[in-house]
Amino acid sequence: MRAARLAVLLTSVLVLPVTSVVAQADPPPAPVFSGGQAQPVFDPADVVRENLWVTAPVDSDHDGKDDQVHVEVVRPRATQQGMKVPVVYQASPYYAGGNDVANHNVDVELSVPGGARAAEGPRVAASGVGPNAAPISWTYQNYFVARGFAVVYAESLGSGQSTGCPTTGDVNETIGARSVVDWLNHRAPARDAAGAPVSADWSTGKTGMMGVSYNGTLPNAVASTGVQGLETIVPIAAISSWYDYYRNDGAVVAAGGYQGEDADVLADYVYTRADKAICRPVIDKLVADQDRVTGDYSPFWDVRNYRNDVSKVHASVLAVHGLNDWNVKTDQVAEWYAALRAHGVEHKIWLHQSGHADPYSLRRDVWLATLNKWMSHYLYGVDNGIQNEPKATIQREDKSWTDEADWPAPGTSDVKVYPWPGGKSKGTLDTRNPVPGNPAVETLADDASKTVEQLADAASSGNRLLYSTTAAKQAVRLSGTARADLSVSFDRPAANLTAVLVDRAPDGKSHVISRGWVDPQNRTDPARTEPITPGTTYRIPVELMPKDYILAAGHKLEFLVASSDHDYTLRPKPGAGVAIDLTRTSVSLPITGGKPALRGAFG
User: Fold this and answer.
1) Does the annotation count 356 as an active-site position?
2) Alpha helix locations (H) across 160-309?
3) Can 325 be counted among the known catalytic residues?
4) Strand-pair category, 33-34 with 577-581
5) Model-level pTM?
6) Is cis: bond before 408, omega within 30 of 0?
7) Which of the following is catalytic: 111, 156, 203, 213?
């Protein structure tokens, strides 16, 4: 039967007139680009949805089987007509919600080498949330699908319908998220709910990862593996080193608004897979290994430091961060961005005036135009010049936006200023001269019950030292990282140390520009605790969080020193004494325009 049909077909072809043209199949649909941007030519409601599980080459729950990453795909229906599309991919541990988990107690005494610290008490185990079977969606889904991109979601190990265990930034988690990129490039297997193989034959393999917070951190993690097919990432409010998220130079420091959270708490929060027992040993091990006692940098934190592997990154990076983000602080983006630039990775940075936020809610039109051009260039190969545009886009305090060559601002250099005696009320912050002569020592007593804002606004206080410039005659800009170099002694073998920059308006209102913290026992190395001898003077640097800030004309720049920071550090009982020798103390400010700009503002 098949031979007869073939003979008839061949005969019919042979007898066609020589002028006839054999009908051609319609070409597959294709995206449309205008002005370097993908245009909305596909119906975002006319899509193919797929549920599948990608096999990750890791066994984080130790059940003897490779972990399975739950994935949802949303792609234009045109992909069923032969159109191949790139992917915008968001991995997240949050799709199934979170558990009710208690944080650690922070009202504890500080650790002393060879001594013991008061027990913190038990935390509450994860409870209440299970896998969420509802379809996943995202603010950007319709935007990208309408323009010819597929959107892919993946649930992190141990969350939702994925197996494995959450480990807060560990290699296991990175492997889980990376396996989806491998599947999109035909290097990893996947199955549907019935166990049938699922292929990404509709995908070009070119993938861009993006997301906010934890969802933005996973792109950094996956890019640091150098996985092929990941062409670009857009990390928004993202972590590049988990140590710097939960610690700061040996000090146990909170993410803003989450006092007492740590790696184990976050893992418990996102542990939403159905099996509530299998990961308990894994999470319990996090409790010990994270070390809330010394706060030292350790192998536990080193494997969670993506900056270590920046040399493997080949994906371009559009980094986005809020200049007022005290959850994922600005050192996370500043350190990552500087390392990427040093290693020749194609880069761009967006800095806005909000906090822990997505720029979609701030300046949607400008942001989406940039994002569209970025994804169109790196995923579709559109020659739109985005890679040659200014590297930095910065929102100013008046909410206006400016493009600059890069960040920190070109022409910025460190300029030293010097606190002079009088800090219990308010001493001078001199922009030219250090305190001369014999040691000029000023003291404070720790009181962790008072916030930095309360200390800054007190007319006089024995719990902080405060120093101020004169009112600025013209605006002055800080762009980068300020650093306090303190000559300091303590009357106890353990204490916190906090440094703060403050903007004082003409009406007396204060605004914290930046702050930083250090455990004096880690004065030479975050990885090594060294005893403090009471009464001995030490040189201790304190790096503040990087900022881009314009101090307006008429405002004063103030420098505050305290011991504990109520909202961020551990909070021991009041009383620890701190003494600062002002003759050997200075503050380095990253001033755009250097000394001339500072002198122009303050004389």
Assistant:
1) yes
2) 171-184, 214-223, 242-246, 263-270, 280-290, 299-302
3) yes
4) unpaired
5) 0.93
6) yes
7) 213
